[in-house]
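Minutes, structural biology subgroup

Action item carried over from last meeting: produce the structure token record for Sulfur oxidation c-type cytochrome SoxX (Prosthecodimorpha staleyi). EB confirmed the sequence was re-checked against the source entry. Recorded below for completeness.
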Amino acid sequence: MNRHIIAVAALAVAAGLATGLPAGAQEAKTYPEPAGFDAAAKTSWSKVKPDEWKTRIETDETQRLCNLYRNNPPPDVARKIMEMNRATVVYPADGQVIGDWKKGQALANNGRGGQFSDEPNTVNGGNCYACHQLDPKEVSFGTLGPSLTGYGKARDFSPDAAKEAYAKIYNAQAAFACTNMPRFGATRFLSEQQMKDAVALLFSRDSPVNK
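Output recorded by EB:
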């Protein structure tokens, strides 16, 4: 073996012994540094006007805690996050959480909205298929979230389950702390009617989701 390679390897081992770590290992940081994260976020939008897109670069308490624990909070913090977000859920005044499943299907297939290239009056979509399987005949879907095929049928089309689904769509953090699912209602990304239509896609007996 080349003497140079042996010497380099010996130095690496010695360095590992000196630090109490295996050669090549790095000391892991338990949490990210909030100050560094905030600085990186703000410099990413350095050319915007004062207060423009402010809500995009300033984290709320939920996001702060999820960042702090890298989306894996301890049980007590997870409970705090869910309690905070349950308090934000606003149910429809008419008491109805189920809309039109056909419009819900269109919503699930629509990934537009919230992008810099979209026109100002672009209607936001839910882009549900990016993360979930819904219609079992649809072959293009993401797997970041669980399959929702047969969702309403599996819950006997229960009104209480439909109301629970509305709450999850409105603010998923109310049910799953540090989930990747957007807070569609809490951030006003989707309208009340759009969320009703999404619930209809899951709970209508005629919906392809339940066929």
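Discussion: Residues 29 and 119 are 42 Å apart (CA to CA).
Next step: EB to file the record with the rest of the batch.
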